[in-house]
Write a structure and sequence with these properties.
By secondary structure, this protein is mainly β. About 5% of the residues lie in helices and about 45% in strands. It is globular and about 45 Å long.
């Protein structure tokens, strides 16, 4: 059975600096459907039940990319070696269907200062 494996990539945060990042899909992949939302969820570690330290909603989601702009006041409180998941939420395809949630990226958070 095939399954999706999230892309592993670390996030680097710098004290007093906003975190701005754009995740672009491969041009061969289908467009993100209208109504797609996304968020980065930061946890203390990668264990099940680990405390959530922050949730950062996407600044913009369009057909090709998901962008984030998180103010330094929110990023400065995140400790080194935390972990994150970029969760993408596709809208229901028909009335009564559920939202499809999937993890596109995941990795560690590293502080440069």
């Amino acid at each position: 059975m095939a399954q999706f494996e999230p892309i592993r990539e670390n996030i680097k945060l710098t004290r007093w600096a906003d975190w701005v990042h754009i995740y672009r899909k491969d041009p061969r992949d289908p467009d993100f459907p209208v109504g797609t939302t996304a968020e980065v969820i930061v946890t203390k570690d990668d264990k099940i039940g680990s405390p959530i330290l922050a949730t950062w909603p996407a600044e913009d989601v369009n057909t090709d990319e998901i962008s984030f702009w998180v103010q330094s006041e929110a990023t400065d409180v995140i400790p080194d070696r935390s972990v994150y998941q970029l969760m993408v939420h596709y809208p229901p395809v028909v009335d009564g269907a559920e939202v499809q949630d999937w993890c596109w990226y995941q990795g560690g958070i590293r502080r440069t200062r």
